[in-house]
């Protein structure tokens, strides 16, 4: 009987010891007391078990089984985020999990809307404290044509306007302007599929021509139906030697954002002014989304030669210049 009592007392103290150790490691400090910082990488798709084992292998925790138990207890198995996290041996399990499940602590998410210009993208990146406008201006002026085949049809001395694909991105805080650009160009290359490139070539156009027109379409109209209609209208005007007369190209020069332009602005002497000069402008005026790119490649045949867009985004089409002037009187007041 005496030995049985000793056995249970021993078991009791072992349980108390283990429970105390677990609470200490979970909410206070774990068994390692170093203070050095370690860059800990979690890649997309890695499991909580893998993360736990790697934490032990790198000396951040003393026992991965205790950490596994804490993760299970806190129901955090699916909350870990990919990224690089600055961790220290001696951190509690609670702090470790908190660090690795709050992605905003190490990465910045940023959304670039369709139709943003290079300058607008740069300002948004600067607002997120990723790069400065000076760094951005230098990076977008560099030559990336040797890295991406779709840039081959670009004229020399062109910048990257039109080719930085609008999307939601996640960047590490230490990212460079060049790394941001390469990621956005890679995304553009993935969206402009081989089938789309073959179709562009079959039609006798260059990628640069299509992206230039797509950028104008992006800034002129808002719906997929209107994009395809306006695309056909623009291509026919180009074939007929008529000026595009796209207000968005003049707004690109003046940095305004109005549904109609002034008589004075229409007379600005710039190669981007499609009121003054026929043909496409030298390059894109914004960075179009895939819907506008596809509209430029697959126009919807129609009989209209003119259109206008009011402040609400409603589009009005016309067959003749007289009808266009009547629409202006009605809808652009």
From TrEMBL:
GO biological process: cell wall organization; peptidoglycan biosynthetic process
Stretches that traverse the bilayer: 6-23
Site (Important for catalytic activity): 220
Any one GO molecular function term: lytic endotransglycosylase activity
GO cellular component: plasma membrane
Membrane topology: Single-pass membrane protein
Keywords: Cell membrane, Cell wall biogenesis/degradation, Lyase, Membrane, Transmembrane, Transmembrane helix
EC number(s) per entry: 4.2.2.29
Region forming the signal peptide: none
Catalysed conversion reaction: a peptidoglycan chain = a peptidoglycan chain with N-acetyl-1,6-anhydromuramyl-[peptide] at the reducing end + a peptidoglycan chain with N-acetylglucosamine at the non-reducing end
CDD domains: MltG_like
Domain of life: Bacteria
This protein's record includes keyword Membrane: yes
Cellular location(s): Cell membrane
Record function comment: Functions as a peptidoglycan terminase that cleaves nascent peptidoglycan strands endolytically to terminate their elongation.
Family listed: Belongs to the transglycosylase MltG family.
UniProt-recorded name of the protein: Endolytic murein transglycosylase
Organism: Candidatus Uhrbacteria bacterium CG_4_9_14_3_um_filter_36_7
Lineage: Bacteria, Candidatus Uhriibacteriota
